Amino acid sequence: MYSEIFQTMKTLLPMKRILCIDDDPDICLLLSRYLGKNGYEVETAFNGSNGLNKIVSGKFDLVLCDFRLPDKAGLEMIQAIKDIKPDLPIIIITGYSDVKIAVKAIKYGAFEYVIKPIHPEEILLTIKNAIESKPIISQSDETNIDKDASIEKSNVNNTPKEHKKSATFAIKGSSPSANKLYQLVSLVAPTDMTVLILGESGTGKEVMAKTIHEQSKRKGKPFVAVDCGALPKELAASELFGHKKGSFTGAIGDKIGHFEAANGGTLFLDEIGNLSYENQIKLLRVLQERKVKKIGDTKDLDVDVRIIVATNEDLKKGVVAGTFREDILFRINEFQIDLPSLRERKGDLSDFASHFLNVSNEELGKDILSYSDEVLEKFKLYHWPGNLREMKNVVKRAALLSNGKNIELKDLPQEIVTPSYFQELESEEDSAFTDLKSVAENAEKKAILAVLARTGYNKSKTAEILKVDRKTLYNKITAYGISLNS
Hints:
- The chain is α/β, with parallel strands linked by helices.
- It is built from 22 helices and 16 strands.
């Protein structure tokens, strides 16, 4: 009897299908067994080409992909998968030393990345979150992006899945710089000015845009977020402006574009520097006239939309290089907000750490109270190349591994405990230092690196702490070949 009920439930709730792409058969086998026991159907591929072929011919709810495959690079795989199935969530498996690349993977469209060695509970939670973030549209509909305009209308107030990001960065901090930042937000939010948000990947640009929306007169109206970097070049115009039935091969129904979906509310264009030059021209008319013309339509459609854009690139350099239109830059830069990196927000670091610990406790069902003093000190010394997004992942992983009431050093990744730049210096100690002078120089270099990291690479403050003038510090930095692009 119970087996019949179970079979009936499987029919009503089909198992989610996962494709695991990894050149290590042992990892594929372990994931297949573990995920199979937890209600997933897993198929494997041992190289990128085989994996892509399976995505073309099969239906999957999620892809687990190793970043280092024998035939294809990780970023190349993400792009190829998104070209085939734009809505298919991708979780990248990587070593922690690849954190900067992992952050770039998120920008290319990966939902999340997990760090080796893989912890079962962590991967299971990440998979669950990724699949639940998908829209309620079957994979068979993904190839018919136009199948039912009524589905699009029913989701007008929802952020499109491929651009949906975590809202767990929504904490402002308490430092004077944070207060000044949010004073700017309170000034510009009530207006309809177009806002340009600048900041590195992971600094919370979308959350800032949502905060502006929530403090505006458009609160309660649609907030639509679009990752311009994830828009396929040939479909970008359709995604942004919509199309009419029959306007091109495969357009079997009318489609509502993002501008129309955001009508009355706010449209957030993330990573606008990645928009192709051709689509920039189409965007310019909309910015100027607030009118869109669907592909295949002869009529203009008026749209009442507040535009907020964001980028981690220097758009002025793009103008000089000829990859970004200067007239668009003038249109979008009515008001500029600069989001500082996490290493420049040491005064807010404890606020963010506490916030992410609360979020992790809720998601993992834990009851961890705080961090040890040693952990907080390591957090202050670390340079956080992935910013808030990286901190969120580090805290969640540490909370998962913790078996006490506090996060301890043993719960942190090695990269946080001993940053790579210190590891490099330690390896140099074993081979290069043969006299007292070289030992002294090594100690001096270590001290400069440590203080630079603590001050968020603020040279004036670093010089003050080290009790040298700026010129002396610059000479030391040059002599020791210290990079300031961390």
